[in-house]
Amino acid sequence: MNRTILIATDYSLESLNILKKVLKEKDESGDSNQYHVLLVSGYDTGDSIRDLLFNTKGSIFNKIRPKEFCEAYSIIRNKYPHLISKITCDVFTGSFQRTFNQYVKSNSVEEAYFSSSVRSRDKGMFDIIPYIRKNADLQSREISLDTREKLPERGKLAEIFVEV
Length: 164
Hints:
The protein has 164 residues and is of the alpha/beta class. It has 6 helices and 6 strands.
């Protein structure tokens, strides 16, 4: 059975630890479902007519998503091919709770995961965790991430291989 899960991200390698932890738990529990994973961050498109007309999701992702992030989630996808049917990166551009609720409904999201240590605050991004918490129809769970201060792989692709 296919299910859709949403993971709040800031497009950092550290935020992929949420995905790793969730998939590891589902793998250890013997879950037989396939998951469509939505990696979502809030993005403020601004009020400029020029930006609204000429910015595409591709140009937004070029600003906020590093190349290493795509390589890292491909590695995770290859580690759990029996659990992942599809991984999609997306941005939520709304500013109202009802808009987020409609986004969740239109994407058939059943579960959402987030971490308080991962906050989108750079490059026009905003945090979607308050929207997730206020959505009554969404089964959400906070994932605690153990962040090590001295991690030599921090910010590099090798960070994805560190056990969480």
